[in-house]
């Protein structure tokens, strides 16, 4: 996909996020929207995957370590063809396979069940090490939250990845600077995030995580980095794309009501129209 096509798809992914959370009357829109461009680039450009064969042996793996932003992952998977887009409206409904957190047993395209913060990166390290041991060339991607990396297990996993030189592992930190209780530097600051990963022998790249040019540059650089894992620190806007959600901690884990939903979808409709005029 070219940049314009990726931008248009990101709008569709954001529409899926807003629609699913509104339908569920629960969920986490803020961090899903901030990472929507990352999800879009991974699933439509970066990863070696096949929606028709979700378990193919040589596929790249993805672990959503910050599992509460499942609406973002689900919307990317649906738009990529893993399951019908209309199923997004069943999010968190009784009997739906689209649970509040990713479930690898029931959702096509989900490589690891996640949701307990801090644990996903360890699972990604195991997948990456398995690839090395089996001499397979798949890559493993893990998306972590900047609040999540206050968890100690993240740094145990980082220590392991750096020591084992897992250059087939790429960690992305969605650095939107807000967690459920407020700004991360006021709750339990993990800053400087880049220096911490560097100290664990990671190649570190800082980018604007809502800019596809910078996203492409980072993933291209990560793919060519050998002898060490890569950490991409993606500086993003919480609630990106929805006017009243942007940089608002209150939208970390709250669903829009009908009136708010209409405003959000109008914001996204206008964004899509603007892109169509380019």
From TrEMBL:
Domain Transketolase N-terminal: 9-263
Domain of life: Bacteria
Signal peptide bounds: none
UniProt entry tagged with the keyword Membrane: no
Record keywords, A-Z: Thiamine pyrophosphate
Keyword Protease: no
Cofactor requirements of the protein: thiamine diphosphate
Coiled-coil portions: none
Pfam families from the UniProt entry: Transketolase_N
Classification via InterPro entries: THDP-binding, Transketolase_N
Similarity-based family: Belongs to the transketolase family.
Record-given protein name: Transketolase domain protein
Organism in which the protein naturally occurs: Roseburia hominis (strain DSM 16839 / JCM 17582 / NCIMB 14029 / A2-183)
């Amino acid at each position: 996909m070219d940049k314009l096509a990726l931008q248009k798809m990101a709008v569709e992914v954001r529409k899926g996020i807003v629609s699913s959370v509104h339908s569920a009357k629960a969920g986490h829109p803020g961090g899903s929207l901030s990472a929507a461009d990352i999800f879009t680039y991974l699933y439509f450009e970066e990863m070696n995957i096949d929606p028709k064969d979700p378990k193919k042996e040589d596929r790249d793996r993805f672990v959503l370590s910050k599992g509460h932003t499942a609406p973002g992952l689900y919307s990317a998977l649906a738009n990529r063809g893993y399951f019908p887009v209309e199923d997004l409206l069943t999010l968190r409904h009784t009997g739906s396979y689209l649970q509040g957190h990713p479930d690898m047993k029931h959702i096509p395209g989900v490589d690891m069940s996640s949701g307990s913060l801090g644990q996903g990166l360890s699972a990604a390290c195991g997948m990456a090490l398995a690839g090395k041991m089996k001499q397979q060339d798949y890559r493993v991607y893990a998306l972590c939250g900047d609040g999540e990396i206050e968890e100690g297990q993240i740094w145990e996993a980082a220590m392991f990845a750096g020591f084992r030189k897992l250059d087939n592992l790429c960690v992305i930190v969605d650095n939107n600077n807000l967690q459920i209780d407020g700004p991360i530097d006021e709750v339990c600051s993990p800053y400087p995030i880049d220096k911490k990963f560097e100290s664990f022998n990671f190649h570190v790249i800082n980018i604007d995580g809502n800019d596809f040019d910078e996203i492409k540059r980072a993933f291209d650089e990560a793919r060519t980095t050998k002898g060490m894992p890569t950490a991409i620190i993606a500086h993003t806007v919480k609630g990106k794309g929805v006017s009243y959600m942007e940089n608002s901690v209150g939208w970390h884990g709250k669903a829009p009501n009908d009136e708010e939903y209409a405003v959000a979808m109008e914001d996204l409709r206008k964004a899509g129209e603007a892109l169509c005029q380019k």
